[in-house]
Amino acid sequence: MIKVLIVDDQELIRESLTLILNVTENIEIVGSASNGREAIVLTRAYKPDVILMDIRMPEVDGIECIKMIKEFYRNTKIIVLTTFDDDEYIYESLKNGADGFLLKGISKDELVKAILTVYNNGASIDPEIIKKVFSLFGKLAKSSVVSKVEGQDVESLSNNEIRIIQLIGRGLSNKEITQALNFSEGTVRNYISSILRKLNLRDRTQIAIFAVQSSIMLKDIEDKA
Predict the structure, then answer these.
(1) Percent of the chain having pLDDT more than 90?
(2) Domain with CATH 1.10.10.10 in the chain
(3) Which candidate among 41, 68, 179, 207 keeps its CA 20 to 30 Å from the CA of 74?
(4) Using 50, 70 and 90 to split pLDDT, how confident is the model at 221?
């Protein structure tokens, strides 16, 4: 059962999402919060697998809430569900570790699919947002994510780790990477953990940013581990 927490300052939205998702197989709504402060308390209490997070909220907004939750509950997946598609919101959400970014108004089936995708370590981004994401990544060339990675750190990567970075940079989910490389999902997760440790990066999103910003996407890999 996938435990889901709903975070939105509008009561109608919270109640509607609860009604819709509670009747969905394998999904259980464990709670709802009207602001980021409540969300942090409920995350500590219920350890949700997936959080649906609004951006604009009182007390602690969605951006700051994502940052705080990801710092202490790294395995909790967060999908931003908002009406705002401003570049700043998109960038800050992904930078702080959001696993998905969706616009309100999507269908129930699309929302359920997104929850399942991030639960299985993929990323889910609204098609209307994808172009903005790539544009943002392009503007971030040689920014802090690349500059914090030392040359010797990159040299320490195995060929399989480089392959996985390249596939993450192309937007593939963990499941798609397992199919592309004929690895188990556990093996892919282990490689990603190793990449994070070697490059001193925080999460999968930073790997994607690093891949797009750096020249590693152009690197040819020999057929060896």
Answers:
(1) 48
(2) 144-218
(3) 179
(4) low
Within 10 Å of residue 34's Cβ, how many Cβ atoms? Answer: 18
What CATH number labels 144-218? Answer: 1.10.10.10
Per-residue pLDDT tens digits for 84-100: 776 667 878 887 889 99
**Residue 152 to residue 158: CA distance in whole angstroms:** 12
Among 41, 71, 53, CA closest to 4: 53
Q: Give 54's contacts (C-beta < 8 A, 6+ positions apart).
A: 7, 8, 9, 10, 13, 62, 80, 81, 82
Confidence of residue 47 (pLDDT cuts 50, 70, 90): very high
Q: Given pLDDT bands bounded at 50, 70 and 90, which one contains residue 198?
A: very high
Question: Quick one: residue 203, left, alpha or beta (phi over 0 = left, psi -120 to 50 = alpha)?
Answer: beta
Asked: is 2-137 a CATH 3.40.50.1820 domain? The reply is: no
Residue 224 has pLDDT above 70, yes or no: no
Question: Is the pLDDT reported for residue 82 higher than 70?
Answer: yes
pLDDT over threshold 80, residue 64: yes
Distance CA 198, CA 152 (A): 9
**DSSP-assigned beta bridge partners for residue 80:** 53, 101
